[in-house]
Amino acid sequence: MHINFRHAAGFTVIGNHLAQHRGLSLAAIGLAAHIQSLPAGARISIKHLAEHFPEGETRIAAALHELEAHGYLHRSRARLPDGRIITRTVSYNQPGAVTHPIPAPRPRTAPSQPTPQPTPPSPSRVTAPEPRPAPTPQPAPVLVPAPTARTTPPPPLPQPQELTPELRRMATALLADLRRHAPQLVLSENDIHTLTPGIATWLERDAHPDTIRHTLTTDLPRPLKHPAKLLRHRIATLLPPPLPGAQDIALARPGVIVIPLQNCDDCDRAFRSRHPGHCRDCRTDLHTAA
């Protein structure tokens, strides 16, 4: 509760930035208020202040250093004409503010002396001002918003070459099982139906189910607001390429000829040959029988 009376004289205006300063001590705030209440030219040396206040010279010196560090005081050395060196202190009631000279008030004109009025020009010299052309209205600039994650269309979901029933079953089961490994990846039946072709494409490219599950559930954002959109983005952008065939690896290593594997027509044993047929043992048996 405040009981305030308006001061008519003998008061000093102090800002709340000083009275409620959180970085100054109470002694520094009180000393700043005292200095701002003094007229220009007053003595505020440490010994002079210590004679008027119960605080000692050490405490007063520390308070002056606080005010100087926060910009409320500026102290500098000056030499008088008689050769003595004194400390000149400048007090700032609002540190950091740009100082402008206060204009001196203009003397009022006595009412008995009328203010001279400018003489109007002769009618013969008055010329009508030329009309200025109206400014051409400029069209308002069209602001085109920059593409963001919300306005940029998502990448297309990969589609398998042939969505067989087996691929559909495995992809659907893998998507429905994600919530066991990441509880925030709870998908609706519609989301699973939409994302199934993308997972089928991964499986078609010989990606292991554990690899797919690890890719979709690692480093999830928190909180996860749209799990289906996140999975769609990862399925489309992290899709591995198809595995290269034997002929592609042979072309990548010049000078090395890789003979493909064939299955024997009789014993189904694997053997290397450029043409399908019988393995070496079956061919020996055929010659022996003949």
Task: Report Rg.
Answer: 46 Å
CATH architecture of the domain at 16-91: Orthogonal Bundle
In what order do the strands lie side by side in the largest sheet?
A: 1-2
Number of strands: 4
User: Biggest sheet: strands, sense, closure?
Assistant: 2 strands, antiparallel
Helix/strand order: HHHHEEHHHHHHEEH
Residue windows where pLDDT falls under 50 for at least 5 positions: none
Return the CATH topology of the domain at 16-91.
Arc Repressor Mutant, subunit A
* Total helical elements: 11
Which percent range describes the beta-strand content? Answer: 5-15%
Helix content: 25-40%
Quick description:
α5 packs across α7.
Report on the architecture of this protein:
This protein is mainly α and 290 residues long. Among the domains are: 16-91, Arc Repressor Mutant, subunit A, CATH 1.10.10; 165-237, no CATH class; 246-289, no CATH class. It is built from eleven helices and four strands; from the N terminus they run ααααββααααααββα. The chain has helices spanning 16-19, 26-37, 46-52, 57-69, 165-176, 178-181, 189-204, 209-217, 227-237, 246-252, 280-289; strands at 73-79, 85-91, 261-263, 270-272. The chain has a two-stranded antiparallel sheet. α2 packs across α4, α5 (165-176) packs across α7 (189-204) and α7 packs parallel to α9. The longest helix is centred in the C-terminal third of the chain and has 16 residues, at 189-204.
List the helices and strands and how they pair.
Elements: H1 16-19, H2 26-37, H3 46-52, H4 57-69, E1 73-79, E2 85-91, H5 165-176, H6 178-181, H7 189-204, H8 209-217, H9 227-237, H10 246-252, E3 261-263, E4 270-272, H11 280-289
Antiparallel strand pairs: 1-2, 3-4
Helix pairs in contact: 2-4, 5-7, 7-9
